[in-house]
Automatic annotation (TrEMBL):
Active site positions: H130
The keyword Hydrolase is annotated on this UniProt entry: yes
Domain of life the protein comes from: Eukaryota
Organism in which the protein naturally occurs: Fusarium oxysporum
Pathways per UniProt: Amino-acid degradation; L-phenylalanine degradation; acetoacetate and fumarate from L-phenylalanine: step 6/6
PANTHER family xref list: FUMARYLACETOACETASE (PTHR43069:SF2)
Protein name: Fumarylacetoacetase
Keyword Zinc found: no
Catalyzed reaction equations: 4-fumarylacetoacetate + H2O = acetoacetate + fumarate + H(+)
Length: 428
């Protein structure tokens, strides 16, 4: 266990190498304010700066906000200078963080917020395994050609992006019934294991940005659960696409792990590292990009708080398209992207060959990023450790996702995104 001014547990997702950014409040101060996570503690950045943590004045001004949007618009070297200043202070026994009462708070004493003001949310679909499996269940034998030519996506609901820990109520919707369509609670409620990409510097309207420069517009990454009501979704899909079936809630982990932290952890890869597979080998110059990201992710389910079962694992690098290609394609029409916009990577599912990247710690079954794949649309129930069968999410179920990046002594994490399913509200 590393000491510093307070113990940092071995295996913590938030070692000194990480320094993610988030927004929190406490019981004695209800104002949402920026902080960072180190071990099992949260550092109040405003208090640290007020007490002498050396930072650029533009950082001080940006952190006066109740969101991270102003901070994210700063130049990357200025943003990263705050990470470095915090890291240096933690290593220096004469620094501000070694004094008493200087804004160091136990993590279980804070309430986390959605860290940025989100003007737009876009959800991609970039896993070949996910597209193939879902397509077979829908009766399609071939993957559409456009999947191989561009990162497919749709515009979602920014209004229903919520922070980890907030419960999710089972949604109502229009679904087919024996006597015709009816308005009723979803009976096929599902999760989707994804990563979220937050935009930093805006992409101006009318100025498409190629994938080779997209990294300049990425602030960082979070875990993302794109809750999906499959019965509502499948009934409304044709001819226009998903709407209410995907609108109920999108849960995200509260700490944004920066691109710079991922690079220092060795989680930023080049397409050469990956053998130029999939869309990363595109011949379209606008989408061509050398950068990719590796993040190991997993989903577990707790039923009635008694057991916890691993449902699936995957890796961000297994996607057909990289996050930077997603940013570029989104901008390709000239629509522009604003600071705080959130892009979901789409469901992270791995093929039987890809899951072998986990070595001996892999499972040929537990490699899907959603229940629809794991249980084949409800036709193949999954047996939980208590002997019960899982088909779709039940009231009282808690879904938790985790993410890790790096290797050896450079492992960093994203913490968790977790939510409990509550029964549908009653309507007259």
């Amino acid at each position: 266990m590393v000491q510093y001014p307070f113990p940092i547990p071995d295996g913590s997702p938030f070692p000194i190498l990480n320094i993610p950014f988030g927004v929190f409040h406490t019981v004695d101060n209800s104002d949402p304010r920026p902080g960072t996570a180190v071990g099992d503690h949260v550092l109040d950045l405003r208090i640290l700066i007020q007490n002498g943590l050396p930072v650029d004045e533009s950082v001080n001004e940006a952190l006066a906000s109740s969101t991270l949007n102003d901070f994210a618009t700063l130049a990357v070297d200025v943003r990263n200078s705050l990470r470095k200043s915090i890291q240096e202070a933690l290593r220096d026994e004469s620094s501000i963080v070694y004094r008493e009462d200087v804004g160091i708070i136990a993590a279980d004493q804070v309430t986390m917020h959605v860290p940025m003001k989100i003007g737009g949310f876009t959800d991609f679909m970039c896993s070949l395994e996910h597209v193939q499996t879902m397509g077979r269940m829908a009766g399609y034998n071939e993957v559409p050609q456009n999947f191989f030519d561009l990162p497919a996506a749709y515009n979602g609901r920014a209004s229903s992006v919520i922070a980890s820990g907030q419960n999710v109520t089972r949604p109502h919707g229009i679904i087919p019934g024996p006597n015709g369509a009816t308005y009723a609670p979803s009976q096929k409620f599902d999760f989707e294991l994804e990563m979220g990409v937050f935009i930093s510097n805006p992409i101006k309207y009318g100025e498409p940005t190629p994938a080779s420069r997209a990294r300049d517009h990425v602030f960082g990454f979070v875990l993302l659960n794109d809750w999906s009501a499959r019965d509502i979704q499948f009934y409304e899909m044709a001819p226009l696409g998903p709407f209410n079936g995907k609108a109920t809630a999108t849960s995200i982990s509260p700490w944004i792990v920066t691109v710079e932290a991922l690079e220092e952890a060795g989680a930023l890869l080049t397409t050469e590292d990956l053998g130029l597979r999939g869309g990363k080998n595109t011949t379209i110059p606008f989408l061509r990009c050398q950068d990719d990201v590796a993040v190991r992710v997993s989903t577990s389910l707790s039923r009635n708080g008694v057991t916890e079962d691993l449902l699936g694992k995957s890796d961000l690098k297994h996607l057909h398209w990289s996050p930077f290609q997603m940013v570029a394609h989104h901008s390709s029409s000239g629509c522009g992207l604003d600071t705080g916009d959130l892009l979901g990577t789409g469901t992270l599912s791995s093929s039987a060959d890809q899951i072998k990247d986990f070595g001996s710690d892999h499972d040929a079954i537990r490699r899907s990023g959603c229940l629809a794949e794991l249980v084949l649309g409800g036709t193949r129930p999954f047996t939980l450790s208590d002997g019960s069968e899982l088909v779709w999410l039940e009231d009282g179920d808690t879904v938790t996702m985790e993410g890790w990046a790096g290797a050896g002594d450079r492992v960093i994490g994203f913490g968790k995104v977790s939510a409990k399913i509550l029964p549908a509200n009653e309507f007259p």
